[in-house]
């Protein structure tokens, strides 16, 4: 989180990165989706990943908690090499919370039940402790009065906040978010981003794929722009969003920041990208 005191680039100084990715490649058949990705997230840092659809953002996140097995390269989370032969994948995954676009709550469980269940099954917490933690977390995401509600009785934004509480209940050291607000009605986005902002302010290490540029601008320590399975550029949001170095980044941002203008310009898009590739 910006201004939290820790230097954003202080991974080396802190001794280890929260997330460290080296030479990451991932192919599906003959389709190489990640083509050599290197980057790190320092403890307490918030990194937003932006980029066009199909650029490999979700695959990158899924490789960080080994929902996908990398084709090559290493992924370390809090110093543990997830790609090493000896790794205890279940133990490693517990240190990583993941929030997806779709919330995937159990429909037959209340908000409380959804936050309790993995604590019981995975961490073997006693029910009273699991419920106490679940109540605290539901309060933290602004849902103290929805503890007994079922997913069908909750708005999309409320369901997503339950999903965030569920991930936090496992005590993760890193939280991954994959477009957590993309499926929400516009008026519900703010509450979810507000919860994420609160987490960032509390010092959580976060890797966030998002199209919410105002969130990235205000909350991210660093923004990473991906295209075609590589990192095209990264840096502070004021640099990458407001003064991008690469034409591909500029083209993407102009479409995200002004979708109406981009639609009018869609016919010219392929020309724009050909020009962008020449520039970059
Ligand atoms: N499980 C999979 N099997 C085959 N292809 C996949 C799979 N997951 C993703 N892809 C392909 O990888 C590319 C990047 O996808 P993705 O990581 O979801 O991009 P993004 O999140 O940036 O939109 C796409 O071409 C997609 O079709
Ligand atoms: Mg995606």
UniProtKB/TrEMBL annotation:
The keyword Lipoprotein does not apply. Its main location: membrane. It holds the Pfam family ABC_tran. InterPro entries: AAA+_ATPase, ABC_ATPase_HisP-typ, ABC_transporter-like_ATP-bd, ABC_transporter-like_CS, MetN_ABC_transporter-like, P-loop_NTPase. It is a peripheral membrane protein. It is found in: Cell membrane. Keywords: ATP-binding, Cell membrane, Membrane, Nucleotide-binding, Transport. Its EC number is 7.4.2.1. GO terms for molecular function: ATP binding; ATP hydrolysis activity; ATPase-coupled polar amino acid-transporter activity. It catalyses: a polar amino acid(out) + ATP + H2O = a polar amino acid(in) + ADP + phosphate + H(+). It is an enzyme of class 7 (translocase). Gene3D superfamilies: P-loop containing nucleotide triphosphate hydrolases. Residues 19-253 form the ABC transporter domain. One of its GO terms (cellular component) is plasma membrane. This is ABC-type polar-amino-acid transporter. It comes from Actinomadura livida.
């Amino acid at each position: 989180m910006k201004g939290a005191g820790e230097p954003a680039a202080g991974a080396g100084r802190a001794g280890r990165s929260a997330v460290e990715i080296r030479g990451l490649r991932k192919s599906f058949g003959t389709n190489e989706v990640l083509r050599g990705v290197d980057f790190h997230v320092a403890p307490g840092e918030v990194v937003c990943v932006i980029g066009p659809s199909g650029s490999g953002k979700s695959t990158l996140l899924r490789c960080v908690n080994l929902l996908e097995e990398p084709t090559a390269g290493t992924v370390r989370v809090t110093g543990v090499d997830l790609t090493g032969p000896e790794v205890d994948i279940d133990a490693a995954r517990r240190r990583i919370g993941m929030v997806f676009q779709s919330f995937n709550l159990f429909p037959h469980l209340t908000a409380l039940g959804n936050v309790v269940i993995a604590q019981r099954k995975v961490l073997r917490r006693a029910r009273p402790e699991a419920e106490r933690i679940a109540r605290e977390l539901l309060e933290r995401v602004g849902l103290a009065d929805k503890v007994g509600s079922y997913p069908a009785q909750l708005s999309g934004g409320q369901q997503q906040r339950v999903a965030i509480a569920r991930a936090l209940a496992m005590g993760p050291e890193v939280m991954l978010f994959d477009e957590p607000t993309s499926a929400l009605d516009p008026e519900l986005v703010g509450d979810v981003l507000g919860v994420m902002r609160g987490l960032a302010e509390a010092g959580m290490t976060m890797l966030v794929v998002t199209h919410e540029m105002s969130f990235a601008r205000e909350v991210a320590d660093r923004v990473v722009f991906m295209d075609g399975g590589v990192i095209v550029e990264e840096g502070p949001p004021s640099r990458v969003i407001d003064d991008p170095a690469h034409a591909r980044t500029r083209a993407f941002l102009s479409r995200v920041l002004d979708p109406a203008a981009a639609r009018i310009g869609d016919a010219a898009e392929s020309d724009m990208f050909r020009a962008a590739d020449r520039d970059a």
